[in-house]
Amino acid sequence: MPRSQRSPLLLAGLLATAGVAHFANPRQFDALVPSALPGKPRTWTYASGAVELALAAGVALPRTRRTAALATAAFFVGVFPANVKMAVDWRDRPAPQKAAALGRLPLQLPLVLWARNVANNGKGRA
User: Fold this and answer.
1) Taking a C-beta distance cutoff of 8 angstroms, is the pair 59, 73 a contact?
2) Residue 124 pLDDT > 90
3) pTM
4) What is the C-alpha to C-alpha distance for residues 56 and 14, in angstroms, rounded to an integer?
5) Confidence grade of residue 125 (pLDDT, cut at 50, 70, 90)
6) Domain-by-domain residue ranges, the chain?
7) What whole-number distance in Å separates Cα of residue 105 and Cα of residue 63?
8) Which pLDDT score is estimated for 122?
């Protein structure tokens, strides 16, 4: 299978894995929810996990791939504040944890670009 055909499936797999993780271990995600958001962090954790699962399904299916991939790019932008919160909250942790939190920040850009690329490669396909 050519790389261009694997890319959407890999993105769908990443989204599905992250979505399942939100339900399997919600406590770690609750801590990332910015306090400015209304409601309980667990609600946001489950909601974002459900969105990731829905996006995964949409990206995996050729018929919905373009729209879902564009929504995925927007989702990656939308969750960036949680990554910033993690980096701030983890600034006093041991170096490996701090590095992981800081490393997530620049990773958002390639994720957004990947999703946009999947959307653009899905043009005109049914």
Assistant:
1) no
2) no
3) 0.86
4) 8
5) very low
6) 3-119
7) 31
8) 65
pLDDT at 126 (0 to 100): 39
92-122 tens-digit pLDDT = 999 988 898 898 899 999 999 999 999 998 6
As given in the structure block, the two tokens for residue 94 are: 């041991």
Amino acid at 73: A
Could you tell me which of 105, 101, 96 has the C-alpha nearest to residue 86?
A: 101
User: What is the C-alpha to C-alpha distance for residues 118 and 7, in angstroms, rounded to an integer?
Assistant: 7
User: Distance (Å, rounded) from C-alpha 99 to C-alpha 112?
Assistant: 21
Query: What's the CA angle centered on 92, arms 38 and 105, to 5 degrees?
Result: 60
DSSP secondary structure letters along the chain: --HHHHHHHHHHHHHHHHHHHHHHSHHHHHTTS-TTSSS-HHHHHHHHHHHHHHHHHHHHSTTTHHHHHHHHHHHHHHTHHHHHHHHHHTTTS-HHHHHHHHHHHHHHHHHHHHHHHHHHHTTT--
